[in-house]
Amino acid sequence: MKHEKLEKQLGLWDVFAISTGAMFSSGFFLLPGIAAAETGPSVFLAYLFAGVLVLPTMLSVSELCTAMPRAGGTYYFIDRSLGPLMGTIGGFGSWLALVLKSAFALIGMGAYIGIFMDVPITLVAVVLTIFFGLVNIIGAKESSFLQKILVAALLGIMFFYIVQGLFHIFSLDFFEITRQQFSPFFINGVNGVLATVGMVFVSYAGLTKVASVAEEVENPDRNIPLGMIMSLIVAVFVYVVGVYLMVGLLEPEAFRSDLTPVATAGEVFLDWLPEPTGLILVVIAAIAAFASTGNAGIMSASRYPMAMARDRLLALRFSEISKRYGTPKIAIIATVLLMIFFLLAFEVEAVAKLASAFQLLLFGLLNLAVIVMRESQIEEYDPGFRSPLYPWLQIMGMIISVFLILEMGLLSIMFTALIAVFSVGWYFYYAHNKIEREGAIFHVHARLGQRRYHGLEHEMRTILREKGLRDEDPYEEVVARSMVIDNLDSSVSYKEVINKAVSLLAGRTELPENKLSKIFYGVNQEGAIPIGRGVALNHARVEQDIRAEMVLIRVKGGLDIDAEQFESLSREKQDDKQKVRAFIFLVSSEKHSGSHLRILAHIAEMVDTRHFMDRWLTAEGEADIREIMLRDEHFINLVITQDDETSSMIGKEIKDVKLPGDSLVAILERDGELVIPHGDTIIREGDKISIIGEKEAIEQAKQLKKGS
């Protein structure tokens, strides 16, 4: 089923703001005093250890996000790896846990607003929920813009707070403060620290919530891992240093019973500001923290019902995208209504704490998901970021989750079990008979001789098409040196087309013709060649470490091919009988299988456009055929003339011509004939050259067209 896609509107700083904003709320403005009662002055170390312990899950989520950037994040990863039953549990649990955390954050925001205004806290929280819901409906970019303002205000005040606090401590007798305030360091021994780590660990749980909006992130391979790493570094710094200041400046007994320790500590070293400026700054920071958690929570939480509806685990209405705003309006409204229900019907703080155990269960499942996806050996699973130290890091992440869940207590475990039981019941009541897919776990089973689910491979290929090429993929170079056969008579057979392509590829790769013929005939007989919109994409991989080579064949009259037995190249329904006019042959090395698959996916995406065949049939000659295959922003054609800046190239060898960036001369046409460009090829006036390179380099190369 084809789904409406969310717009990619979020960049690196949006990812950073969502991750950071989802972490800071009660974990910093409420929890430190409660945590200090468990372990004493060593509480700041508990925050440090918790930050380190979240690393395995953060790295696992980064890998999953870059491999499968889809709305729903945690739900989607668990569903596609462990199957729809586990996906249902993960989807409902993630949605509920995030709704509760967001509602709790807005309760906290209402409490801080109540310092200056005598208003009902719950009413304020409900109004704020509606406000943030409306912002999210208007657009992800608008919501993220608000998020960046809130996070900027929060971090700006927090860094000022920390600098002032450190200056105050070091202006006093540092060693005396250490002796008085940090002794005894462990009031309950090592067990106290471990218990406290479990308590404060959930302060970092928001770090991975950006996964649910991964579909809306530009360049997810870079922006998601980098944004999350930046966010974790900042969070650990603020948590550890901020809590260290509270320990160093507040009376131990008072600190351990203080529910507003940030404000209390601020009164100690911000007393030089006009009263009550220090308190106002802390309250603004707290409000920004709670607001950013609430806003990011609604944005992230609403993507879970949307993703589940896409997969028929919920009613399809939840997956609808607003035509005006490009956001999942129904899913956002449902999330807002659920938050309001919990705000009005329950003691949100108590229920939110219970949901923390389920969050830890999800962390464990996400680490397991990476192991399943890797071991499934699905070729199309192609993360732009790979978690290091596999599988030991993931195993450690699962062990950490189990250990911390046991630390949460029986009530939290029972709450988690209740969510699981409800989810299983819903799955068998509503969804079981509506879906046919299975997770990657069945591909692991296939390695043991059991069945596998091929639909997942097709879905992964669709994701590859949407993600596009990576910078290191030599697509332009492959197209530039491709061999072209033009105007073949339509009376030839498909077998003859393959033979002509094989002959050229054998000469270029120095591989035996019979070996290449056997490979291409084999994949055709298996129906593994994608055909659609008049294009057949023939591809093969060999064991030898060769560079990728391509042959482009145009048959204007077309060859009639029974496409029913082949994989469809187009996302739209195609006729069983195809008149194929474009044959694309690609051969690569098994050692570069990832690049091979991405190039195939890019070609598939390109030829699936409505105008490709029109351009293909009207192309004039080999050079035009190659240009159709190139990305417009990655190449430029220049005619060498005395009338513009290209005159500086006349009479020079190509190796002596200074081109912008890493761009290069890929095609040279002289007197109507193609010349294979080499380093010692001399450029002459009247030559037509095609330069390929990165976008920035091509933009600079355009300056050569300007008059001299």
Automatic annotation (TrEMBL):
TM annotation in the entry: 12-37, 43-61, 82-107, 113-137, 149-170, 182-205, 226-247, 279-304, 325-346, 352-373, 389-406, 412-430
Membrane topology: Multi-pass membrane protein
MF annotations from Gene Ontology: monoatomic cation transmembrane transporter activity
Keyword presence, S-adenosyl-L-methionine: no
InterPro entries, per the entry: AA/rel_permease1 (IPR002293), APC_superfamily (IPR050367), PTrfase/Anion_transptr (IPR016152), PTS_EIIA_type-2_dom (IPR002178), RCK_C (IPR006037), RCK_C_sf (IPR036721)
Gene Ontology CC terms: plasma membrane
GO biological process, one term: potassium ion transport
Coiled coil: none
Main location: membrane
PTS EIIA type-2 domain: residues covered: 477-632
Subcellular location: Cell membrane
Cited Gene3D superfamilies: Amino acid/polyamine transporter I (1.20.1740.10), Mannitol-specific EII, Chain A (3.40.930.10), Regulator of K+ conductance, C-terminal domain (3.30.70.1450)
UniProt keyword annotations, A-Z: Cell membrane, Membrane, Transmembrane, Transmembrane helix
Occurrences of domain RCK C-terminal (ranges): 623-707
Full protein name: Amino acid permease
